[in-house]
Design a protein that fits this description.
The chain contains ten helices and six strands; from the N terminus they run H-H-H-H-H-H-E-E-E-H-E-E-E-H-H-H. By secondary structure, it is α+β, with helices and mostly antiparallel strands.
Length: about 220
Amino acid sequence: MEEIREQLPRYQQLRTILTTLHLSLRDELPPYAVVETARVLGIYNRDGTIYFESDIAMSLLIDYSIYDFQWDGQTVIERRLARTTGEDTDERLLLEAMARTAYSVFAIIDVVPGYGMKAHDIVKEGKVLIMDVGLSSEALKNMVLACRTICPAGCAFSMIPGRVAGLGCIDADTCTAEIPDLLAPAVKSALSEGNTQDRSGLTAAIIRACLETKM
């Protein structure tokens, strides 16, 4: 896994920028974004309250608001991109990657503590190299995760920009083709019925399934 170790300095540089970028994008959301997103994710109550059964739910709500909530036909990411046209910066590099990402479900193939992991993308049916120093200290081989990843141009790795929802583990002998059949029913249904071309719809379906399975 020498390839993942060589990428660490670039990952750390982009991770610092990404953290600041996330906070600023959150602050640019309109006041009603959270309520509208809560309705989409099925956690908005008739009495006007939002129901959070776990601390992860709040993180997933903000994540969807930043990446998928639109007003006047654009997300907050697309609006920021429009303001940085022509700029050649790492922030714009990240924004471009963020604008084309969607949620997916991953099965971890191998873990390199302190660096990241290799995983199988169950939705796109392919392998991905994920850099995530924090998660690499907690993740286990054969663990199944729901999250979104971004792959900035010029990078040989992907990054996880938001919160991760754990969905348990698979049997060590399970082949990748069998993984979807072992997922929680709600997640399996979201993947089988979701349209991979509709990134926002697929993301909402996976998040709703994660909330339903009380990850």
